[in-house]
Design brief:
Blueprint lengths: L9 H6 L9 E6 L2 E9 L6 H18 L7 E10 L1 H8 L5 H11 L5 E4 L3 E8 L12 H14 L10 H4 L12 H18 L5 H15 L9 H6 L16 H16 L6 H8 L1
Parallel strand pairs: 2-3, 3-5
Antiparallel strand pairs: 1-2, 4-5
Helix pairs in contact: 2-5, 2-7, 5-7, 7-10, 8-10
């Protein structure tokens, strides 16, 4: 039979993505929130059970970080593309220059990544096989974990805490917010802090992650533009090339802001407290 999907508004349509596929699902409870995982793997590999095992621990860490989870249901919608051929080229023996060029060209326009919504997030990941030489970061489960907490924490900002231009977003003529450091930088910092405090990563792993962000963030052309200026003009040439710094320099700014808030309040308050109060 036919399934009829109805949205009350254009915004509701945008905020509730739909994945139509043969069921590969799993679910679990975190406090009073029902979490569902739905997967479409283009080579047919069942993955929901594995994703559940990995995500359950991360979501428990989120629940320990927040006084209460802000939604009663949340869904991870995940599509996994078949790029095992690329894994074979790169990680089976010595890759040829021609093979590397072919892989780079193919992957450069794939659009890997994730996008947050109020009660769900959508992921496009890549299956690069399971060769012994394949880096840990390319493991499908690791790709999901690297993004999942970040996307969920977007519920706090910008989905909850945001500027008027974001609340009344003009889809025809987008006006970008100078607060991108908050929306992405603070969210990225929180995602790593949550995993540290939840015992999902060690202190050394957390510090190594932040050290990498510091080194990357130092390449931001801060003598030519401010972070707020870059954020406001992020769709324009000359500024959009710096967008990646919201995850690096932006997260370091959030880390420093957290430290300063704790110093000013004798550790009675933190960046988390301020963000949640504003939210």
């Amino acid at each position: 039979g036919r399934t009829k999907l109805v949205a009350n508004s254009y915004h509701a349509l945008l905020d509730n993505p739909v994945l139509l596929t043969k069921p590969d699902t799993a679910g679990f409870w975190v406090a009073n929130t029902r979490v569902t995982i739905a997967v479409l793997d283009l080579n047919g590999t069942p993955r929901a059970a594995d994703f559940k095992r990995e995500l359950e621990a991360d979501m428990s860490a989120v629940a320990r970080f927040l006084p209460q989870l802000p939604v009663d249901r949340y869904t991870f919608l995940t599509m996994v593309g078949d790029f095992r051929w690329a894994g074979d080229v790169l990680f089976s023996g010595k890759p040829s220059v021609g093979g590397i060029i072919k892989v780079v060209r193919s992957l450069s326009n794939q659009g890997f990544g994730a996008l947050e919504h109020n009660t769900s997030s959508v992921y496009y990941l890549g299956d690069f096989g399971s060769g012994e030489r394949m880096p840990e970061d390319l493991r499908v489960e690791k790709q999901l974990l690297d993004a999942a907490v970040h996307e969920f924490m977007h519920i706090v900002t910008p989905l909850g805490l945001h500027a008027p231009a974001i609340h009344d977003f003009n889809y025809a003529n987008p006006s970008m917010s100078q607060h991108l450091w908050l929306y992405e930088g603070v969210t990225e910092y929180f995602s790593h802090l949550i995993r540290l405090q939840g015992g999902r990563v060690t202190v050394d792993e957390f510090l190594a992650e932040m050290q990498g962000k510091i080194r990357s963030g130092e390449r931001f052309p801060f003598e030519k533009m401010s972070f707020a200026e870059m954020s406001t003009n992020v769709l324009e040439k000359g500024y959009k090339e710096q967008y990646g710094h919201v995850y690096d320099r932006g997260a370091v700014l959030a880390w420093l802001l957290d430290a300063e808030i704790r110093r000013l309040t004798n550790d009675a308050r933190s960046l988390r407290d301020v963000a949640l109060d504003l939210h």
